User: What shape does this take?
Amino acid sequence: MSTKFPKHLKPSKPHGESLLLQERQRATFNPDDLANFIYGKKYIKKRNDILQILQNDSVLGDKSHRYYNGRHMRFRKSLDAAKRFAELQSIYQWSDEEFAVAESLFDEPSAFRLHRTMFMPTIANQGTEEQKRIYLEPALRYEIIGCYAQTELGHGSNVRGIETTAVYQPETETFVLNSPTLTASKWWIGGLGVAANHAIVMARLVSQDKDYGPHPFIVQIRSLENHEPLKGITVGDIGPKFGFNTVDNGFILFDHVHVPHIAMLARYSRIDRKTGEYIKPPNSKLAYGTMVFVRANIVLESCLVLARAATVATRYSAVRVQGSDASNPKKVTDSNGDLQQVETPVLDYTMQQYRLFPIIAQAYACHFTGQKMHHMYNENQERMSQGDFSYLADLHASSSGLKSLTTTLAVSAIEECRRACGGHGYSLFSGLGHFYQDYLPKATWEGDNYLLTQQTARYLIKTMRSVVAKREESNFSSQYLSEYLSNPRARCSFTRIEDLNNPELLLSAFKFRSAFLADKAVHALDVQKISWNDMLIDIYRISRAHCQLLLVSNFIQASFSGPSSNMKQALQQVALLFCVSTLEQELSDFLACGYLSPEQALMVKKKLVNSLKLIRPNAVALVDAFGIPDYMLNSALGENKGDVYEKMAAMAELEPLNQTKVADGYEDYIRPLIHKGKKNWKVGKDGIARL
Amino acid sequence: MSTKFPKHLKPSKPHGESLLLQERQRATFNPDDLANFIYGKKYIKKRNDILQILQNDSVLGDKSHRYYNGRHMRFRKSLDAAKRFAELQSIYQWSDEEFAVAESLFDEPSAFRLHRTMFMPTIANQGTEEQKRIYLEPALRYEIIGCYAQTELGHGSNVRGIETTAVYQPETETFVLNSPTLTASKWWIGGLGVAANHAIVMARLVSQDKDYGPHPFIVQIRSLENHEPLKGITVGDIGPKFGFNTVDNGFILFDHVHVPHIAMLARYSRIDRKTGEYIKPPNSKLAYGTMVFVRANIVLESCLVLARAATVATRYSAVRVQGSDASNPKKVTDSNGDLQQVETPVLDYTMQQYRLFPIIAQAYACHFTGQKMHHMYNENQERMSQGDFSYLADLHASSSGLKSLTTTLAVSAIEECRRACGGHGYSLFSGLGHFYQDYLPKATWEGDNYLLTQQTARYLIKTMRSVVAKREESNFSSQYLSEYLSNPRARCSFTRIEDLNNPELLLSAFKFRSAFLADKAVHALDVQKISWNDMLIDIYRISRAHCQLLLVSNFIQASFSGPSSNMKQALQQVALLFCVSTLEQELSDFLACGYLSPEQALMVKKKLVNSLKLIRPNAVALVDAFGIPDYMLNSALGENKGDVYEKMAAMAELEPLNQTKVADGYEDYIRPLIHKGKKNWKVGKDGIARL
Assistant: This one.
């Protein structure tokens, strides 16, 4: 017998539904207009079509089991889903973009993820035509399943440090793969623990006694017949993780495993089959283009992450009432049309606004910059195909820093939104717990968020040196650096809070600060001869400053251009909030460079409170505009309808411990203690033993 | 057949053990001296005695299962442990303090936690002698198990908003407990979901048609005989949470449940049994004393939390090598006595130091302030017993803000340390994942970390008004506020980086900043008539500034007084790092109040890098001094010996998915896909099918 909540009990009034309705009525714009502006109708329709397929699918439609299962059952269910995705892919012939939309709606990483995102693309990019024919075609049909094995137990991001070797033997025409130490074990490899039967293995290529460094080899690791590991291979799952437990991250060790000559991916560099001679790759900058593309996607994805976290916390904060703000007592019209005084929705408290609204603004900021990067990526590809590489360095530098900044923002936003939901944020039913746990690795992979900033800063420092030497090419970066050099003693001009509504003034402040930091770094490195290692803290800040400037600049451009409308005005307020809250958060930089005075700093703080007030009536509409479906949120607190408490109760009813009148464990561990006191019991008229 | 790592493989050199040995040899002091200084020998012996008991216990000694189980099995094992703790308690007659040490070493919350920490203390404090006899005595023997049911589904921290009612009926001499709505359901109640058969229920007391607000009732909820819920009661577990899943947080609803007159805890206020007349409680400030005690413990505990996180990340950062710092290549002596050039331990990178060393410093800071609060608590209890309440307001205000600040620091430190461990930080084997998840609620309970700061700020603002009106009592707070008022245009005097070694200069800066913020708030509230709600962001900062000042002040006092020694000098460097890193982190405040100039701000940044260098040789010794045993850490990365990679491999071998040659799920979800490609297979001489 399972525990059920009494059906006649409803939440106390006002109900969440009426509170959200009221929020939606007071917005100054129509969220559909904003949705169309940011996504375009075509994308919205596509997302909705895919949503319908997933929601109605017998395997993928029901997410209700997700929060209760241990890893074993979660992994099984995830394999089931992965298989179903492979089938749907073949039914609907989704494009890569459509597949990505479907995966993002389903919102659970699977064992086949790296097969699609790394194994197949690597063969496609680095394999010969023959290798593509042999491996890629069956891979596309999931007749082999692959993974990408680069990271080792002893070496994460530093690929040059890997220890696995592949020694070519011309006499057998084989490479001998070997793991000389325990730390050489491949580790963290998604899909390897259970699912994959092939792997692309990065190993140090050795031929004719010379070490040519890491190269990719395609290696069968498990039997196609019965899935058992092949001879000389030790392979398994690396065990439980903080998140991502629906993926079988694995380890693998090779004990002198022979693989044929064709195993080495040979589009660029290769080994002569007979002699073992190494043939060098042609020099290519094209790989950087791909990285920009991947990172542009990460920036766009971080918009979605921020938006999703903000949606849950904002809607719940409109429904959750707590105490009352004496200066502004809250009244709502109930279903009978009566005006009723109620407790204050926590969204009315300035501190809650201060925690949440900047996150909404960050989501929009990341959207416009992600879009911009896609445009720039396309323009750069176009130019590179014509032999013009002039865009690449700037674009690569910006994309590195933006990946770091926006994923850092997104990670901290999920956790901040979870905490801003108070106690219930800690329940998995909030939908923010697993979400946080599964998103976290983004801060480490595709470039560690600290290491990446060195690339951005290095580029800016180099550009600053060029500008000083009048060798500048003219792009956004060199222009603002050069502006700064023309007047390094410039000071911010505003005198009244209202002046902070001027986007140009805000943009100038971000330009000055970033250029100041780059200039100081050049001085420290070139004049004071401070080591790069001693500069790492400053370097992190330079990248951050430059990328915040990019976000500010792109947001202002997108929202302050084109025809005006209610929607546009609302968006402009969000852009101003983004600028002012970022300014406030980084105030020490703006003060330390002397650009802002202490008096101006206090004005910025006041302006921020003022900006929060302007956003308040539109808060729910602004998250609605992202159009994140309930299917994706899987959250009792954040769903569109606002029936928070009914959902919490319904989800608690499904808890496995509630499926019996007395839970497992009682007999063994509780009863023996309680029954020791039996002599003191008195049995009442109702037959119940009491003290 | 389970997967085993090849036994002959060792990690590449230098091994973690030799790297840690080297770190320990270069320290400038003996960590035992520091351990004795902070804990005292008596405490260290006690901790060690308890550790021996736990480590050798058949139920509690083995933690190796912890990271693999789903909730069901984890909860069962935790019940087993809770029962064992009850037995050990009766064997060793541990004091409350000793029990707390044992629990902290065991490091897993249990279903009996609230029975001990809330159920019994509430009866002891608020029950009559008769109630203590009836309920407390069997509770001490675990013959009844209780919980504390205050929070409701619709109301968290705001106890005045609770909806559960207890209406007194003189004719039956019973209280009728009722949950009028769904949101009235008690929720989040630890121990209620499965274990408890009694609960202290906070309900609005209604008698003679009058609502007297929340009062505590002791209510039997499950049968002592068979543990089934009693009539009129709906009770169960609230479902999975982000952490704390070894605890059965529960919900409960009452449908007109009658409980006898004795159910109301009646030491302070009570209902006349015959008439239903309400007899008011005597006015008492004593409850505040208890809160101070609880919060002092939380501050001390946050030291342990920071120390534990820092121990794992610091030791692993000494063992983990990655790339090399060209300006400072690293050499170590290997076991053959040869000097070997190796990759750089990540602890040598300034950015890693910047992330970790301030956390070590925060741990020490929290220790000294926690100790100080215990002294002040004792002194205050002494005074209150003589009718002197003059200490109470200041102590209560500081303890509120310190609870907020130190738990916020501790939460973010665990996560920062986890991330600073790179990829392996994400493995549960790091020991930081569950640790973070289980510690998190501390930021919400015993006072939400945002709400609490209002108490601190309100007191400071009030004190500032008194000082202005020359009505000040003389204590630490009023003194520094008054100093500020005597010279609100004071400016910081340092001109060289070396000046920042002066603790008095640093202390003055923290005093000025806190007083400035309090003064501005008084002006905003009293002169500009800005509402409290619009001031909430400032209020949060005032509390933070005041409490950072307390940490700075207590740390300086503890480390710069008494006889000098190598240990003391090392500790002083940690104190200076704490001051400078906190200063740097809050730089915008110090600049915006005009106390620091932009030039001075840049000097602070340089001093910080300088401070990190001074800490570097002592980093491992500083975390060793906390003496956190491996049993508690349960971490492959952080153990004392440094055999990181061997531990990672050994723990991966225990992963359930690795216990069979082919994992569950293959037959159903992978084989059908792979075998579709059978027609393309070629079988080699080794009998293996290949593409």
